[in-house]
Amino acid sequence: MSDPISAESGPVPARDASGLARGASLPADGPIVAGGASRSLRHESAAMHVSGSATYIDDMPEPKGLLHVVPGLSTRAHARILSMDLDAVRAAPGVVRVLTAADIPGHNQISPVGKNDEPLLAEDLVSYYGQPIFAVVAETRAAARRAARLARIEYEELPAILDIAQARAAGGALVWRALEMTRGDVLAGLAAAPRRLSGQVTMGGQEHFYLEGQAALAQPGEEGEMRVWSSTQHPTETQHMVAHVLDRPSNLVTTEIRRMGGGFGGKESQANTPACLAALAAELTGRAAKMRLDRDDDMVMTGKRHDFVVEYDVGFDDDGRILAVDMVLAARCGWSADLSGPVTDRALFHADNAYYYPDVRLRSEPLKTNTQSNTAYRGFGGPQGIVAAERVIEEVAFATGLDPLDVRLRNVYGTGTRDLTPYHMTVEDSIAAEIMEQLARDCTYRDRRAALRAANRDSPFVRRGIALTPVKFGISFTATHYNQAGALVHVYTDGSVQVNHGGTEMGQGLHTKMVQIAMREFGLASDRVRITATTTGKVPNTSATAASSGADLNGMAVLDAVRRIKDRLIAFAAGHWNVAPDAVRFLPDGVHVGETIVPFPDLTRAAYLARVSMSSSGFYKTPKISWNPDTGRGRPFYYFAYGAACAEVAIDLLTGETRIERVDILHDAGRSLNPAIDIGQIEGAFVQGAGWLTMEELVWDSAGRLRTHAPSTYKIPACSDRPRIFNVALLEAAPNREDTIFRSKAVGEPPFVHGVAVLHAISDALASLDSYRTCPRLDAPATPETILRTAERLRPRAGG
Amino acid sequence: MRNSIRFYLGDRLYDLPDCPPTLTVLDWLREQRGLTGTKEGCNEGDCGACTVMVVRREEGRLVWRALNACIQFVCMLDGAQLFTVEDLRAPDGTLHPVQQAMVEQHGSQCGFCTPGFVMSMVAHRKAPGAVADDGSIDDALAGNLCRCTGYAPIVRAMKQAMQAGADHFDAQAEAIADRLAALEAQADGRGVRLAGPAGRVTIPADSDALAETLLADPQATIVAGATDVGLWVTKGLRDLPHIVAIGRVPDLRTITQDAEGLRIGAAVTYQDARDSIAALLPDAGEIIRRIGSTQVRNAATVCGNIANGSPIGDGPPVFIAAGATLHLRRGAARRTLPLEDYFLSYGKQDRAPGEFVEAVTIPAPGPRTLFRAYKISKRFDQDISALLGAFALTLDADGVVTHARIAFGGMAAIPRRARGAEDALRGRPWNAAALAAARAALDADFAPISDMRASDWYRRTVAANLLTRLFAETAPGAHPPETRLAGRMEAADV
C-alpha cells in the first residue's frame, strides 16, 4: 500500500502562472512536488478515518479516575426559578457532585462577544427550553444521565416569545444593535421607478448536525493548570472562557483539538459550554472530567442557523432592471446575543448577492426570543441575505415575463460601472456574469428549460423546474481584528517538518492544505511533513476557524514561518557551499545549491551543526480591509468568491414531494490549493444548502420545546437525496486577483449558497400551475407541506 | 440450558455469564473493549455512525448483516461473530478494498461517519446479488448520514469497491463458518437463561419455551430486533429487568406459504421478509424498502412493528389493507384476529399479559385485486411517515368495485381502515365520480393531528390526493406517464 497521503489523485485543472503580479505568496519557481499546494492530495487523515483510528475527543484514552458530566436542562421557555431541589440528584448512585451557578469560582458568563448576557448555568431565570441549569458529575456517564432526570425544579412561568412575529408583536427587543446600510435615496428611487412591488420571504433555521456531538475533556494540572481537549472551532475563545469561569489567567489554561467530527459553525461559540462545565467539574473535584452531549441534549441546548423573515420593496423597469431595493431582514436570534450581531450584519452584506442596486436601504432586526441562541452556521447569515436577493430577482422576472436568468444577467455587478455595494465597497472583480453564462452554456440551461416547460403541459401530477443562480460571497471576518493568524513550524535535524497553526480541522481539509504549503515550499513529500493538533500552547491568540478564512489566514502564516526558515537555510547554504543565495532552490528532487543537489536532510543536519535556528513562528494579517458599522461604510472583504449552480427538480403536485434530479455547478476557488478537496467542499456544501431549503425543518411547540431534536425527527439529506446527475467543476485559469495564499480562494461557505438553485427550481416547477404567470413566492424550507400549500395557492380556481 | 452469552468479536470468543440485559453493543465496544472506531452519533439507530457487521451461519451459508450497535443489546449477539471497523484491514495491515476506495475517492472529510459507512459498504459487498447501481447503493447507505461530503464521493467509492476482488473475510470464510458451527454445536437446544446484578436474559429455545417464559413472567420484555426497545433504554433510560430475546428462535424465524397466504413468524426481519412480501404485493415491497434503513431492517421484525402498536408503523396499514390476520398465543392458547382489530387505541393493543404475537398472515391478492401503497415523508429514505395509505380494490369484469380495503397510518392514534371511503367505492364503477365520492367520504374518516411531521391539513389533503393517485394508476383507461417520484412502477401491472 502506498502512503495514504502521498498519492496524487482527482482532477487537476491545468493552470499556468503567467500574468500574475509579483506578490508575497508567489510560489518558488520550478516544479511542484507531487501533492504540494495547488495539486490534489488526499485528506491527511483519510487512512485513519476509514480505519476507525482517527481520534476524536471521546475516543481519547481516559485519564485515571475520569468523571462524566451531564447537564440538567430547563423545561420552561421563560421562567423564574422558584426553587431547585437537587437532593435526589446528589443521592443518586455514582454521583460525585452537582454543579450549579453558585459553584463557579470566576464569572458565570460565556458571552462570546462580551455582552454578559449568557450565563454558563442559569441562576434565577431561565430563558429557553433546554437551557443548562445544573450539571451532574458522576462516575459513569450512564449514572450522570439518570441522575440528571431526578431534579425537582419549581418555576414561575413568564410570557415566552418564540418567533419573529411574537417578538415584533411584543415590541421587538433586540439582542444586538440593528444595522442600516444605505446608498442613494431609496424612497425617491422607489417612487421614481416605473414599476414597483413588495413582498416577504420566510426561511427556516438549520441544525448543524455535526456527526460528532459537542465534547470536551478537562484535566487539572499543578498549581491551577487546566488542560482542555475540546471539540471547538475556536480554541483561543474556549481557553479564555475556561480561564474566565475558573478565574485565572489564560497562561494556566491550554486548549487542544486534533480534529472535530464536523463543525459547520456549530462549534464556534457553542463548544464553550461543554468545555467550561468539564473544566469546572475538574476544578472542583480535582479529577479529570468529560462532557459529551447526548444527541438530543445537544440539539435542544445549542444554537442553530438563524431563521429570517425578510420584507422587500423593489422598484424596477420593464426590462427587468432593478432601480431601488428596500429590505428589512429580521432574524430570530434566541435568548442571548451570541454571534447574532455579526450574523445579521452579514445577511445585509449579502442581500445584494451579485447584483447592483442603484438606490438601496438594508436594515437588520436581530430579535430576541426565548429559544436556543442562534449562532454561526456555514455562511453566517450570508445565505439568508442571498435567498432574499434571489426572491427579488424572481419577483422581477415574473412581473416582467423574463427568464429569471436574464434578470440576473441584467442586474449583475459591472466592472468600473455599477460596481458599488450597499456598504460602499467597490466590486473590483465581478465575474458572476461570465460564470452564469458559461454554466448556462455547459449545462444547456435554456434548451432544457424550454423542454421541461413543454413536458409539464402533458404531465398532470409530476412537474419539473429548473433554475440557475449565482453566488458572490465576501471573504474576511467583518470584525477586522479577527483577520490575523499565527503558525509555528519546526524543521528537525533529520529533515522532517512539523507544522502547527491556529486553525482547526473539522473535515474541511485545512490541515491537508497547510501540509501542502510546507511540502511545496520545501519540495518535500507528504510523509516528511507532519501536522499536529491545534493547541493554544503552540499558537496563541488565534481566531475561530470560520468565515471560510481558515486556509487564507493560516496558510499565509504557515508560509511566513516556512519562508523565515528557508531564508536562514538559504543564507547558510549560500555561505557553506559558496554560491549566490538565489542559486539555492528547494525542489522535489532535493535542495539545488548551485549545480549540486543536496538532500534536504543533509542540509538540515549541516545547518544544525552550524547552529542555524530551524524553527519559526509565522504571522499574517489581511491587508486592505476596514469596516465601520457606525457609518455603514468600508471594505469589509478582501475579495469575493463566485460561482453558479443550475438545478433541475421534479415535484409531485399531489403530495408536494420533490426530487433533485440534476445539478451542475461551476465554482470559483481561485487557483485551488487542492482541487480534490475543494470539489468535495462544493459537493458537500451544495447538499447541505439544499437540505436547509427543502427537508430540514425545525419545529417548536407552543411551550417553546424543540420537537425536532434527533435525527428521527430532524431530517438531513440522506444518500438518495443527492442529485443523481451531479456535475461539479472549478473555474479554470482564474487565480485570485488579490495576493492570497498561492492565489487561491476560500471555499468553505460560498458553495453552500448553491442550494438556492434548488429552491428556485421547485418554484419554477410550481409556477407551471398557472402557466408561469405568478411568482410562486415559495418559502423555505420547501418541505412537501410547504410545496403543497404553495401549489394550492397557485392552482387556478375552477372558473377563475 | 446455557447460562452465558457466547459470541465472537473478531476471532476472539467472548463468554459472558453476567451479561447485563440491556447493555448495548456500542457501549460494550467503546467502554469495555476500548474499541473506539465505532462511533456514537445519535444513539437511536438513525445516523449509522455505529454500524457494525454481524455474521451468522444460516442454512449452511454465511449471512453478513450491517447493524446499528447503539440499539443492539449484547445478549442478542449470542451465536454470532461481530466485526467492527478495527477488523477491516487485512492481517498484514493492507486496507480493505472498501477502505482503499474511500481513501482514493476522497470519501471522508471529518471522518466521524466514515467507520459506519465503510461497515455498511463492506456488508453491501457481501449481500447476495449485490450490484453497484445507484438505487442499490442508496438503499445500502440510507442508514448512514454524512453531513460533509454530499455523498457523491462515497457513492463513487462504493462503485469502485464493487469492482474489487475478494477480501480477507472471503479468505477466512471457512474458518468463520467452522467457528460459528462450533458455537452452534455447543448450544444444547435448550436456550439460554442468565441472571446477573443488572437483570435477567432469556433466550428461549423455541416458541413453546417462549410461551412458558412469558406465562411465568408476564412483565418480561420481548425483544426481537430492539429497534424500538433499544430507544427505551438509550433515550428513555428505562430499566428492563428481564429481556426475552426472540430474534434467533428458530421456529419463529420461518416464512411459510400456505392456503391462507404468507405466514411470517415473529422473529422474521423486514429484510428477510421483503422479497416474499414484494413478490405478493410489489408496492408493499417498496414500502418495506423505505422502512428504516438496511441496518434497521436487518434487526426490525415484521411482527415487532405490529406488536408495539405504533400509530405510524409502516407495516400495519399495508398489511391491514391486504387483509392480514394476526396470530396470538398465550401459553398453549392460540387465537387469531383480523390485524385491524389488534389496535385498540393509542398505545393499547388487544394483547393480554403473557400473550405474544406469534405470526402474521398476509393473504395473496385475488386476480382482480389492485394493490397500492404510498408512503409520504419529509425525506424519502429512512424517515417516519407523515402518513401512509394502502389500498386494495377488487374490480369485477365491468370495472365495478366489489371489495375495497383502505388503511392509513399517521391519520389517527392507531393504523386504521377508512370505512367511509371504502363504502363510497363499493358497488360503484371505478370512475371519476367514485373517486370524488371516496375523497369526500375520506375526509370524515379521520381527524388527524398536527405535529412536527405534518399538519392536520396536510395529512387530510394528501390522504385524499393519494386516492387520486390510486385512481390515476389503476382506473380503467389511459394512465398518465408519471404518477409518483418514488417507487415508480410499470403502469401496466394491473
TrEMBL record, chain A:
EC number: 1.17.1.4
Aldehyde oxidase/xanthine dehydrogenase a/b hammerhead domain boundaries: 51-159
Protein's UniProt keywords contain Oxidoreductase: yes
Keywords: Molybdenum, Oxidoreductase
GO molecular function: xanthine dehydrogenase activity
InterPro entries tied to this protein: Ald_Oxase/Xan_DH_a/b, Ald_Oxase/Xan_DH_a/b_sf, Ald_Oxase/xanthine_DH-like, AldOxase/xan_DH_MoCoBD1, AldOxase/xan_DH_MoCoBD2, AldOxase/xan_DH_Mopterin-bd_sf, Xanthine_DH_Mopterin-bd_su
Keyword Transcription on entry: no
Region of interest (Disordered), residue spans: 1-29
NCBIfam families membership: xanthine_xdhB
Listed PANTHER family: ALDEHYDE OXIDASE 1-RELATED, XANTHINE DEHYDROGENASE
Name of the featured protein: Xanthine dehydrogenase molybdopterin binding subunit
Native species: Nguyenibacter vanlangensis
TrEMBL record, chain B:
The FAD-binding PCMH-type domain, residue ranges: 194-367
Short name of one Pfam family: Fer2
EC identifiers of the protein: 1.17.1.4
Protein keywords: FAD, Flavoprotein, Iron, Metal-binding, Oxidoreductase
Coiled-coil ranges per UniProt: none
Residues of the 2Fe-2S ferredoxin-type domain: 3-88
UniProt GO MF annotations: xanthine dehydrogenase activity
NCBIfam families: xanthine_xdhA
Protein name: Xanthine dehydrogenase small subunit
Gene name per UniProt: xdhA
